[in-house]
Amino acid sequence: MEQQAINKRTQRRHLLAWVLTLVVIAALSVIGWQAVTTPRGSGLLQTLPALLPELPKDEQRLGQIILENHKEYRANARNWSAVYFGCLFFSAVCAALAGLVIKLEFFLKNEGLKKDLAAVLAMLAALLITLSTVGGFHQRWWANRLAATKIEKLAYAFLAPDRKDSLAAFSLQVQQISYERNEEIVSSDSDQKATETRKDGKYLVNPLAILLAEDRAEVLA
User: Fold this and answer.
1) How far is CA 175 from CA 170, 179, 181, 204, in A?
2) Is 3 within 8 Å of 53 (Cβ atoms)?
3) d(CA 213, CA 217)
4) What are the tens digits of pLDDT across the range 142-167?
């Protein structure tokens, strides 16, 4: 009888542990699904593709490049966001569980098992933080997020009817956004550059684009 009571208590502990695990997994799945399916720049993605077939070939090519770059930067920002914040989240969870496992008495009776689990969880927490830092996950997410915002702003400007007179400037700015994105990923002082960019409220304009704009103004005058 006593053994049966012990077995029932053990089964209840295991059942409760599995229920808690399933609840956590379900919550994480819902959060991940919401993060992936949340619309980003949906207005642009619906408007620009419909406009492209109506444009001349030169405008169509440039518009397609802008659209594809926007999709790429948004996808990269979403993926690196998931990796970066996933590492932070699971590192915090592992660190918290490492301290919790040692104190458990109802779910875990084996002291050796508790110490081993705590050591493994602490190691995982440290590895996740190290991987996130060394891999530059935050910097990659941030650079792609900023590039997506810049190219989206450029795409909305491209929708204006006077784009024909500014194709060269549009092309130069597409190149510059792509270059700055890669520069911000590999450069150690990218945070300082980003602060200056946000402070100005705009991305830097290529001097050649300024010259082209001035030339066009003189011709029109």
Assistant:
1) 9, 6, 10, 12
2) no
3) 6
4) 999 999 999 999 999 998 888 888 88
Instruction: Give the sign of the dihedral formed by CA 26, CA 27, CA 30, CA 31.
Output: negative
**pTM of the predicted model as reported, rounded to 2 decimal places:** 0.67
d(CA 85, CA 92): 10
In our burial notation (b when 16+ CB lie closer than 10 A, e otherwise), range 40-76 reads ebeebbeebeeeeeebeeebeebbebbbebbbbbbeb
Q: State phi, psi for 159 to the nearest 5 degrees.
A: -70, -15
Q: How many CB atoms lie within 10 A of CB 125?
A: 20
Instruction: State how far the Cα of 56 lies from the Cα of 79, in Å rounded to an integer.
Output: 34
- AA letter at 38: T
- 10-37: pLDDT as tens digits: 666 656 655 666 666 666 566 655 555 5
